[in-house]
Amino acid sequence: MKIKGLIFDLDGVLVSTEKNHFIAWKKTAERLGSDFTEMDNEQLKGISRVDSLKKIITLAGATVSTEYFEELLVFKNEIYLDSIRTLGPGDALAGVLELLQHAKAHDIKLGVGSSSKNANAILELLQIKDLFDAIIDGNGVSAPKPDPEVFLNAAQGMGLSAADCLVFEDAESGILAAKAGGFKVIATGNPHVAELADAYVDTLTDFNLSLYEKSL
Ligand code: BG6
Ligand code: MG
């Protein structure tokens, strides 16, 4: 079967910004007097900024006013943005550029389906934004992952149906979102979620599209 479109999650798939999110959330949790571990962070991968803060507040057993909630969102995003300022073309994860180029050379459409409201800025820093036919980010959806909306909108933007596309994800919420939308999913970069997906590769260097198509 021929795949006509590839849709990529951003954080943890195209670029290793999950660590930056984690550090910024850890500092936010400290303001709530709470510790925040990498295991806790697993629950946040792929979900929106607002939903992430709600989870951190629950983990901390805290209650915050609407004003303080907004202040914490800004606090986290400022730390995060400051930490990614120096990202550049060399920071795309292993195998990303090769897979994007392979797709371009074979007339396969490219999309991004990310929960991040910073997705466009990061794609620009990586200098890969122009390669994509559709970019759907946290600003463009009403229901965040694990709802399939972000991936369905990306497929629609590429003029394709879910059955024509393959989604690349590193987070449980993202894999569930893609599955709910009827997409095949390749998990990457996070062995914890390997079993939820149709296939798993440590890095995109290990992914061979022609071989995968033969297996379908
Ligand atoms: C997802 C990340 O892609 O975007 C999450 O996996 C992050 O860790 C979420 O919280 C929202 O990102 P942003 O950049 O809008 O705060
Ligand atoms: Mg991700």
What's the helix and strand layout?
Blueprint: E1 5-8, H1 18-31, H2 38-42, H3 49-60, H4 66-84, H5 96-105, E2 109-113, H6 119-126, E3 134-136, H7 149-157, E4 165-169, H8 172-180, E5 184-188, E6 199-201, H9 209-215
Parallel strand pairs: 1-2, 1-4, 2-3, 4-5, 5-6
Bound molecules: 6-O-phosphono-beta-D-glucopyranose and magnesium ion (MG).
Magnesium ion (MG) binds at residues 9, 11-13, 45-46, 170-171, 174.
Walk me through the structure.
The chain has 9 helices and 6 strands, in the order βαααααβαβαβαββα. The protein has helices at residues 18-31, 38-42, 49-60, 66-84, 96-105, 119-126, 149-157, 172-180, 209-215, and strands at 5-8, 109-113, 134-136, 165-169, 184-188, 199-201. The longest helix has 19 residues, at 66-84. The radius of gyration is 17 Å and the shape is globular. α1 (18-31) runs antiparallel to α4 (66-84). It is an alpha/beta fold and 216 residues long. It folds into 2 domains: 5-15 and 89-215, Rossmann fold; 18-83, DNA polymerase, domain 1 (Orthogonal Bundle). α6 (119-126) links the parallel β2 and β3. The structure holds 6-O-phosphono-beta-D-glucopyranose (BG6) and magnesium ion (MG).
What attributes does this structure have?
six-stranded parallel beta sheet, 216 residues, Rossmann fold, 43% helix, alpha/beta, binds 6-O-phosphono-beta-D-glucopyranose, binds magnesium ion
